[in-house]
Specification:
Homodimer. The protein has 391 residues and is an alpha/beta fold. The chain contains 16 helices and ten strands. Bound molecules: 3-methyl-2-oxobutanoic acid and zinc ion.
Length: 391
């Protein structure tokens, strides 16, 4: 498949080691984070968020290890809008060759009232004070308006204007609880970018959670609305139902390049190895039917699909498996498979059968499928011996 590429890139901000690690059962030691960070750098992400230094000594250690090792990737750390957090975060992040401080504060009415107990004015003051404080020490500051998608739009515009005026270079508008829809988030980005003073000086970022299974669709819509940085994690791990899966957004931009006309720096052939690395490190298997990186993503069992694939792979595949790091597509032989696929597999194993021989073996294959879900090469070889067909 000839997939065209383009030169304008969307930045990939990887938060596997921070938001991803917040996923229940996915915590990593500093050494494990270092191994994963190397994998992410090889993959070609633009920014790696290494952790939340004020929250743990382990995150501070992880950042120090990663900063010693990776000099070409921007390394970000997360910080609340609190002077003490910012001091700790700055001390930690400045070990990086390319440091970024990622400040966040909730902006939605629900969070203002129940979590922060702050008025709109207090939120604006805090944004101004803490972004200014951070910018006095570091050039690269990202500000996230947590729960943006449930924030009143006029107030969100004020928050963004304040963060930009105080010196933030990247503005992230997270869908913290995975509540928005594609149409809604696209409009939110379009209007912020068109209406907020200074919006043309910064990069807008999208950070979507997957509570309704819409994280990737919403991230794509945010890109349509003008976002040029996408935040996500490998295998989509993250709080609750997870974050936008990086492998999915990257491949969506690549496969549908003619529509989006945007690319990424990611070496897509590293996607599957990186996914498997994470799965091993955190001990969380990838679901078989997961897009791109699941074991079934390029596997075909039904006779009609296998027949189509044997004639032209484009009938049932929109990407080449090798493009994302799988060795090949798989024809899985089972109850739904047809004669063409069985014949093709037998030929690959060195058995060239006459029509009547194939008919006989195929009947035995179907009988075997009543007893087991998948028929492997060893099963086929045993069938051939039992059938005593000449090869
Ligand atoms: O989901 C969220 O809002 C976050 C922020 C801290 C960026 O993870
Ligand atoms: Zn998040």
């Amino acid at each position: 498949m000839n997939i065209p590429t383009t030169t304008e890139n969307v930045r990939i901000f990887d938060t596997t080691l921070r938001d991803g690690e917040q996923s229940p059962g996915c915590s990593m030691t500093p050494q494990q984070k270092l191994v994963m960070a190397r994998g992410l750098a090889d993959l070609g992400v633009d920014v790696i968020e290494t952790g939340f230094p004020a929250s743990s000594q382990s995150d501070r250690e992880a950042h120090a290890l990663i900063a010693r090792d990776l000099k070409d990737t921007t390394l970000a750390v997360l910080s609340r809008c609190l002077a003490a957090d910012i001091e700790t975060s700055l001390r930690t992040v400045q070990a990086a060759a390319r440091p970024r401080l990622h400040l966040f504060l909730s902006t939605s009415p629900l969070h203002r009232e129940h979590k922060l107990r702050m008025s709109r004015e207090q939120v604006l003051e805090s944004v101004h004070k803490h972004v200014t404080m951070a910018r006095a020490h570091i050039d690269d500051v990202e500000f996230s308006a947590e729960d943006s998608t449930r924030t009143e739009e006029d107030f969100l515009h004020q928050v963004v204007a304040t963060a930009i005026a105080a010196g933030a270079n990247t503005i992230n508008l997270p869908d913290t609880v995975g509540f928005t829809t594609p149409e809604e988030i696209r409009g939110m980005f379009e209007r912020v970018i068109a209406q907020v003073p200074g919006a043309d000086r910064v990069i807008f970022s999208t950070h979507c959670h997957n509570d309704l299974g819409l994280a990737v669709a919403n991230s794509l819509a945010a890109i349509e609305g003008g976002a040029r940085q996408v935040e996500g994690s490998i295998n989509g791990i993250g709080e609750r139902a997870g974050n936008c899966a990086i492998e999915e957004i990257v491949m969506a931009l690549k496969v549908r390049n003619a529509f989006y006309n945007l690319g990424t720096r990611v070496d897509t052939r590293r996607i599957v190895p990186t996914s498997q690395l994470l799965s091993r490190l955190v001990g969380m298997p990838v679901q078989r039917n997961k897009a791109i990186v699941g074991a079934n993503a390029f596997a075909h069992e039904s006779g009609i699909h296998q027949h189509g694939m044997l004639r032209h792979r484009g009938t049932y595949e929109i990407m080449e498996p090798q493009d994302v790091g799988w060795p090949a597509s798989q024809m899985v032989l089972g109850r739904h498979s047809g004669r063409a696929a069985v014949e093709q597999r037998l030929r690959a194993l060195g058995y060239w059968l006459e029509e009547d021989e194939l008919k006989l073996v195929f009947e035995q294959f179907k009988a075997l499928c009543e007893k087991q879900r998948v028929v492997g090469d060893a099963d086929l070889q045993a069938l051939m011996q039992d059938a005593s067909v000449s090869d």
